[in-house]
Write a structure and sequence with these properties.
It contains twelve helices and six strands. It has 292 residues and is an alpha/beta fold.
Length: 292
């Protein structure tokens, strides 16, 4: 028992550096689209087989903690990764050879919506035919609920991102993933003792802090975060619907009932390789769906 306890403490200590220094405030999702399916403008002119893909977003899209502790692992990214286990969106659309030369990952671990316009600005230089977007978990994962990005600010920065894209690439298509369900993340991860110890180091304290607390204050805090995530997803849907070449995933990432197999066993927070594969499935089904 002593050896096992020391080993667990060692893992927690190693993970601490990433939690405190790598902005590990992203979440996980994955699976097939929800029953509502992808949502797009009724007049969308949509190409179901684009020949190049660029990705923007946060650590989920960088594959953080999916391969080794404290590290990005872009090769397992749901959007542009080369891993056969994940079968990324780019590989599914372009083939392995095409993805190697015509897909690019501009996501940054720790990014929030305010960082998206700059990422899009870098991506447009590649002139991708499809831009894949997943961002928003870090906007809700803050030290306190009062520190979360406002809904108005979230909207303004997403609109700015699309304006940045359209100024250079009026015909590039955009796939937008919903923000993952952070409350489900809490309900799944809290069953793992080691995961809860890692969370205490500062991972998404607005939702995951005091993971075992079920009092009124803790419940209100978690509900406040969940309400904000749902509001963010409404913004993504509404803004995307105004762009004739944009598809929102219909809350498929948010609604997917992921389990602990889809969570990184380094931090019980980011997607594992299996979780990344589920995200790739959602993206591919949304991008290749016929007009709703």
């Amino acid at each position: 028992m002593r050896k096992r306890s020391n080993g667990a403490r060692a893992v927690v200590a190693v993970v601490a550096a990433a939690v405190l220094g790598a902005a590990g405030c992203d979440a996980v999702g994955g699976g097939s689209p929800g029953p509502s399916g992808p949502r797009a403008s009724p007049t969308t002119v949509w190409d179901r087989s684009p020949d190049s893909v660029a990705a923007v977003g946060d650590s989920i899209t960088r594959g953080f903690d999916a391969c080794t502790v404290l590290s990005d692992c872009p090769e397992v990214s749901w959007a542009t990764g080369s891993s056969a286990e994940v079968d990324s969106l780019a590989v599914r659309l372009l083939g392995k050879t095409g993805a190697a030369t015509h897909s690019w990952n501009y996501a940054v671990t720790g990014a929030r919506m305010a960082d998206l316009p700059a990422q899009v600005g870098r991506a447009v230089a590649r002139r991708p035919q499809l831009l894949a977007v997943m961002v928003g978990a870090n906007d809700a994962c803050r030290s306190t609920t009062s520190d979360m990005t406002s809904v108005a600010g979230f909207r303004a920065d997403f609109e700015k991102s699309l304006r940045t894209l359209r100024a250079k690439l009026p015909k590039t298509q955009v796939y937008v993933a919903s923000v993952p369900n952070l409350k489900r993340l809490w309900s799944q991860g809290r069953t793992n003792p080691l995961g809860k110890q890692v969370w205490k180091l500062g991972i998404c304290p607005s939702m995951l802090g005091d993971a075992d607390a079920l009092d009124a204050a803790a419940t209100t805090r978690r509900d406040t975060v969940q309400d904000r995530v749902e509001a963010y997803n409404k913004v993504l849907e509404e803004v995307c619907a105004k762009d004739t070449r944009c598809r929102f995933d219909g809350d498929a990432v948010f609604e997917y009932h992921f389990g602990t197999d889809q969570l990184s066993h380094w931090d019980w927070f980011h997607p594992s390789t299996i979780g990344q594969a589920r995200l790739a499935e959602i993206a591919y089904r949304t991008v290749t769906a016929r007009k709703p």
